Amino acid sequence: MFSRRLAPLILLLSCQSVLAQEPLTFEKHIRPIFRAHCYDCHGAEAELKGGLDLRLVRLMAKGGESGPAIVSGKSDESYLLDRIKSGEMPPGEHRVPDAQISIIQQWIQQGAKTSRPEPESIGPGLGITPEERSFWSFQPIQRPEVTDLTSLPPQARVRTAIDALILKSMPEGSAFANDADRRTLIRRVYFDLTGLPPTPEALETWEQDTANDWYERLVDELLESPHYGERWARHWLDVAGYADSEGYTNNDSERPWAWKYRDWVIRAFNEDKPFNQFVIEQIAGDELAGPQQGDLTQDQINLLTATGFLRMAADGTGSGANNAEARNQVMTDTLKIVGTSLLGLSLQCAQCHDHRYDPIPQTDYYAVRAVFEPALDWQAWKDPNGRRVSLFTKADREKSAELEAQTKPIAAERATKLAEYMQQALEKELTKYEEPLRTQLKTAYETPGNKRTAEQKSLLTKNPSINISPGNLYQYIAESKPKLAEYDKKIADIRAKKPVEEFLRALVEPANHAPETKLFYRGDHQQPKQSVAPASLLVTAPEGKRPEFAANSSDIPSTGRRLAFARWLTNGDHPLVARVIVNRLWLHHFGKGLVNTPADFGKLGVKPTHPELLD
Prior knowledge:
Blueprint (H helix, E strand, L loop, with lengths): L6 H10 L9 H12 L19 H6 L16 H8 L11 H12 L20 H4 L27 H9 L12 H13 L5 H8 L6 H10 L2 H14 L19 H12 L4 H15 L8 H9 L17 H20 L18 H11 L15 E3 L3 H37 L6 H10 L7 H9 L17 H16 L7 E3 L12 E3 L7 E4 L29 H9 L7 H14 L20 H4 L1
Antiparallel strand pairs: 1-2, 3-4
Helix pairs in contact: 1-5, 2-5, 8-10, 11-12, 13-14, 13-21, 17-20, 18-19
């Protein structure tokens, strides 16, 4: 995963290229530095340290308790710059890199300019600026213009639009590498699509195939192979955090039914499930499945199995850690999986405050959390066993009851035989005692335990050999052990024929359950603040067109929030989802993504080497 330790380096490199270039403006050059280093104390929270707000230039000029923070055109008289240079700001060991300090100094010296007039007033939080919206990954996906392939000379060896876009980005005079020989190409395709080498026989067959479409047929054959799904499912299972145990605690209990989700992913690849449906079913399969009353249909089972995606976060609440902190951690980790796998963003960095690098306000984090809250409500929690979905049918229950009924007469016969053996053993043991003690012991033994007198209890305690039990019965009657075992085997054989109850590891939202989501101050569940409505990330939609999701659906028993969210992710307008998955496909075919940070398409990630090709 991309290290947060590289963040200052990235900002540093970008700053070095700025010093000798365009005039500096607050929005483009200074705000990103402040966002990374200063806004935790001076802008992101309602409480401003020292009364200083760094979100607007005029507020800096006004200053706080120590007076004006900057003096336009006079960097040497600017108190803010002095504090940053001395290492007093930000507090602690964290320092602003020298290159960034130079940018701030140069900006003040140039007149502390802004890109546009500042607003009369400013609301809470950091908001999102046009400059932040203009970041490449938040822009709408655009189909690039591709050179007409027929207009290119044969020696260019451009066969597809992908070739044309790559050629366009290559230095003038460059050319593609030579074509691979057929044997190499066959091996590459096998390893790419199935992860397995071709057999010698298959290699020979394809090498000798003289048809013009041999390559297309080879690809089709491998796409039809069950090994294709096994190979490619593992990449998705990796980003989904698939595991066969719960994690979180040292107990690390098993997830006995997680494999059903694994197999669902394999089938999805092998059946060529459309990607939008692949996403929707994993995020909201239970909402698509409808009410689960009576026997589940196969379609319902498939849809519920898909929601195993949302059950991959480590969950220790069934292993002795069922407390508020552990419950909220499951939600946090689930949102992290959703963010990195589908959005290529580190949502969790906005859990405690506005994201330091990406335009994700803290309210956005909780708006997305509100989408998942009804199913993962920490105040009405279900541990892993409580979330299991039984696959037992009415016929299974009837069959099980029928077989259990067959054991009743055998069990009754066994009980009668056991009583006979116990009586025989008692008589044998009593012969060792003289009267009247023999009769007294017999009476005490045959009296129910809750009706024995203190004298009878004392008598049995002093003569423990009279306390005959099924466990020591064989000491008196040798045949009792094998005979009773025969009855036990008959009962076990009948019960072995019962249908085995299987379960799904699924996420099912309770009907008519719409809890309120609160923003946690500094991410602390013990400090809830204002309510937050379910919505998408602000930056992933054009300004003023952010989708908000109804708190409750009138069409289905659940809230419908996750279904609405999943459909928004896959409607074709989302700037991130398609780019993220295409980049992963490219990465696993060629060893390196077009974006070399597949889980981070934000400010700390690496920009695409071929943005047009990615789109």
